């Protein structure tokens, strides 16, 4: 009969993900349990070690019955008779995005489930694995990159433990950036409900155009970006969200303020990212059924706030463009790239809501 012992438990600081290190009388695994207790729950796992010797081959039948398999001996680097972890020496480091984690034993990195695990037969890296097994990949070649990620992640999360000093500095910087863009701001709304991370919505007006723009969303790095922007994920991990409208439609600001407040949580609540060309359902304006997210960095000749970088990473302002029902359907059937080509409006006009539609 299999016995199990939980050696470590930890929750992601920003995502609904629980990390568990479980040891049985056969092996030990690191698990990341996404959305536990919900209909969308799923688990990522990575083998750490065998505790009771190594089999000759993978126990496929046991796997089909939900039993975590031990690593076959050809892929094991530790004592073939098995090994045990010291629970008191274990520590878990969440990566900056909050959807991946690294397990340390003392100062030694022993297991990592990165954000890109679960694809193409890759489950994670382990210091006790040899080669590319179905349960874990060898860590040797990836160690320099992984060690750097762990060190950076430790520093990243430690930066939020400064009794609010980080937010005071970030808040001041955002207000300066927005005041430089549209003049002295009009209203400031806290939209974090007193929870981590702090964030706000700031409104202003310039040249008969009304604006509302978030402040603080960019403090966190979004999950899954590196799975899409392989070569330069750091250019797209941090966002703020903005909306602009002509004075005639200033009444659209109120529903948009509530809407923006809600969608700022999407990347971490749903373990995804928001980026250029994405669409999200929206019912706040009669006749409109979605918003189109357009990245100021990727648009031509538009007037937009100029943000400094955060730790060498760009802040991307995503403008929300309301889409009429027919426009939303057209983009879903085609693509955002085609929609931008089809638009007759200049980009600087496209991001300002005027009730005329965009396609």
Outline of the structure:
The chain has helices spanning 60-64, 143-158, 165-182, 253-263, 266-269, 325-333, 336-342, 347-350, and strands at 4-11, 17-24, 27-34, 42-50, 90-94, 101-105, 108-113, 125-126, 137-138, 187-190, 200-206, 209-215, 238-246, 279-281, 288-295, 315-324, 352-353. The chain is of the alpha+beta class.
Give structural notes:
It contains eight helices and 17 strands. Helices cover 21% and strands 29% of the residues. It has helices spanning 60-64, 143-158, 165-182, 253-263, 266-269, 325-333, 336-342, 347-350; strands at residues 4-11, 17-24, 27-34, 42-50, 90-94, 101-105, 108-113, 125-126, 137-138, 187-190, 200-206, 209-215, 238-246, 279-281, 288-295, 315-324, 352-353. The strands form three sheets. Strands 10, 11, 12, 13, 14, 15, 16 and 17 form an eight-stranded mixed β-sheet that branches. Strands 5-6-7-8-9 form a five-stranded mixed β-sheet, covered by helices on one side. It starts with a strand and ends in a 6-residue tail after the last strand. A hairpin with a 2-residue loop joins β6 and β7. The radius of gyration is 24 Å and the shape is elongated. With 359 residues, the protein is α+β, with helices and mostly antiparallel strands. The longest helix has 18 residues, at 165-182.
Which structural class do you get from the secondary structure elements?
A: alpha+beta
Per DSSP E runs of 2 or more residues, the count of β-strands stands at 17
Unreliably modeled segments? none
- The end-to-end distance, rounded to whole angstroms, is 64 Å
Shape: elongated
């Amino acid at each position: 009969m299999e016995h199990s012992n939980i050696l470590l438990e930890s929750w992601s600081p920003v995502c609904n993900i629980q990390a568990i290190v479980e040891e049985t009388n056969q092996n030990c695994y690191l698990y990341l349990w996404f959305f536990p207790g919900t209909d969308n729950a799923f688990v990522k796992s990575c083998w750490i070690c065998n505790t009771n010797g190594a089999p000759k081959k993978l126990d496929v039948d046991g796997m089909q019955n939900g039993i975590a398999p031990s690593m076959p001996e050809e892929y094991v680097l530790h004592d073939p008779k098995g090994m045990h972890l010291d629970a008191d020496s274990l520590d878990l480091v969440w990566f900056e995005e909050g959807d991946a984690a690294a397990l340390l034993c003392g100062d030694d990195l022993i297991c990592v489930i990165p954000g890109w695990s679960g694809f193409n037969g890759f489950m994670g890296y382990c210091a006790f694995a040899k080669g590319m097994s179905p349960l874990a990949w060898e860590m040797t070649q990836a160690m320099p990159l992984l060690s750097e990620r762990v060190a950076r992640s430790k520093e990243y999360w430690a930066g939020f433990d400064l009794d609010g000093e980080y937010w005071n500095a970030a808040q001041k910087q955002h207000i300066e950036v927005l005041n430089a863009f549209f003049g002295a701001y009009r209203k400031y709304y806290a939209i974090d409900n007193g929870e981590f991370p702090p964030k706000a919505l700031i409104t202003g007006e310039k040249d008969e155009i009304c604006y509302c723009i978030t402040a603080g969303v960019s403090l966190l790095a979004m999950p899954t970006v590196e799975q899409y922007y392989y070569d330069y994920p750091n250019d797209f991990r941090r966002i703020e969200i903005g909306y602009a409208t002509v004075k005639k439609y200033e009444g659209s600001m109120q529903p948009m303020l509530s809407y923006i407040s809600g969608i700022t949580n999407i990347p971490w609540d749903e373990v995804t990212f928001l980026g250029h060309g994405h669409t999200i359902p929206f019912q706040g304006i009669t006749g409109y059924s979605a918003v189109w997210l357009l990245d100021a960095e990727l648009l031509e000749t538009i007037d937009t706030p100029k943000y400094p970088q955060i730790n060498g990473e760009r802040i991307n302002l995503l403008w929300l463009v309301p889409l009429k029902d027919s426009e939303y359907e057209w983009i879903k059937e085609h693509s955002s790239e085609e929609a931008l080509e089809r638009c007759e409006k200049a980009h600087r006009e496209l991001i300002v809501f005027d009730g005329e539609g965009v396609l």
